Amino acid sequence: MNNIPLREIGSTGTSVTQFGLGTAPLGDLFEALDEGAAQNVLQAAWDVGVRLFDTSPFYGNGKSEHRVGHFLRQKPRDEYVLSTKVGRVFHPARDLETFDPGPFTGALPFEFTVDYSYDGIMRSYEDSLHRLSLPNVDLLVIHDLDFYFYETEARVNAYLNQLFTSGWRALDELRRYGLVKGVGAGINELGMIPRFLDLVDLDFFLVAYGYNLLTQEMLEEEFPLCEQQGISIIVGAVFASGILATGAVPGAHYFYAPASPEMMERTDRIERICKRYETPLPCAALQFLTANPIVSAIIPGALKAAHVQTNFDMLRKPVPRELWGALKSEGLLREDAPTP
Questions:
Q1: Which residues contact 295 (CB under 8 A, 6 or more apart)?
Q2: Any transmembrane segments, and where (predicted)?
Q3: Which of 130, 143, 169, 249 is most buried, with most CB under 10 Å away?
């Protein structure tokens, strides 16, 4: 096993491997995986030393949790950290003929109700334990409470109010009684971190947008606020939905949508500088994230076992320091952005 550096999550006393595994692809996100391939991805992660695994009931309507649980049940419970999410309660699909799996092409035939109440969060937590067939999880994440999913101020405010007046009591109890070690929130956009911190006492944020090699907007307000309060960051969408892995190729995606001409041009400029210093773009993307001390872990997903090994190798590949200076001098990286 490789010795991946450990970093603590907030002040929880729980340390995680800096390189973790996001398991949305194991819920058949955009592409179906057979069981053998899914287990191979998990085994590849374990073999390189990954000990942080992040899943969610939303990933394949429970499929990811089933697969992750099957794998981790065979490992010593004290050797890994497991994260899952709350905010949706699942029930069997009412009509299999009209069932829509959404982006998870091989999703299990279940549908969900959005629920950030006390009962909803406790139900979601207990259902996850059953799907995982494990006695506990280490970290719980409030999932997708933002404008990306709920669109309007009225709906976001309503769910934030439900969380604050009801659901937070469940999360606080689970943490106080030692049933989970840390509580966080998933963030898909700017502006939500301050709103959460005005309401609840979190240990970390799982960030999918606003901090990557293409944009560092979270350095303006969000990250300094977290640093002041001792709150950690886990970065989810390390390749910005793909473009930082593929480069500015036709059809490249940025944040779940086709990349704009401006983002394609910016990516191309960054990649040209990376090539000047003989550094693959994904290598720069990964190492940029782990250079920030507030980032406890990155959790790239993988469709194949080979992808896990490639990402791990990219993290260890030497990168010339001059690359980071060149990106900053070209205005492609913020001057205050931490670099290796």
A1: 7, 232, 233, 234, 235, 289
A2: none
A3: 143
First to last CA, the chain: 24
Chain segment 58-94, per-residue pLDDT in tens: 999 999 999 999 999 999 999 999 999 999 999 999 9
Phi/psi class of residue 315: alpha, beta or left (left: φ > 0; alpha: ψ in -120 to 50)?
A: alpha
Give the mean pLDDT of 329-338: 97
DSSP alpha helix (H) spans, the chain: 35-48, 63-72, 118-132, 147-150, 153-162, 168-176, 192-199, 222-228, 243-246, 261-276, 281-290, 305-316, 321-329
Please check the confidence at residue 54 and state whether its pLDDT lies above 80. yes
| Per-residue confidence (pLDDT) for residue 159, from 0 to 100 | 98
Q: Could you give the CA distance from residue 137 to residue 151 in angstroms, rounded to a whole number? A: 30
Which residue numbers are catalytic? 54, 59, 85
Contacts of 207 (CB under 8 A, 6+ apart): 187, 218, 233, 234, 235, 236
For the 6-329 domain, the top CATH level (class) is: alpha beta
Cα–Cα distance measured from residue 185 to residue 29, given in angstroms and rounded to the nearest whole number: 21
What pLDDT does 148 receive? 87
Output the CA–CA distances (angstroms, integers) from residue 215 to 51, 190, 254, in the order listed: 28, 11, 11
Q: 76 near 134, Cβ under 8 Å?
A: no
Identify the three-state secondary structure at position 107.
coil
Look up residue 186 and give its two tokens: 């998933």
131: helix, coil or strand?
A: helix
Question: Cβ distance 141 to 83 under 8 Å?
Answer: yes
Q: What's the length of the chain?
A: 340
How would DSSP label each residue in 186-222? EE-STTHHHHHHHH---SEEEE-SS-SSS--GGGTTH
Per DSSP bridges, beta strands 257-258 and 81-86 are unpaired
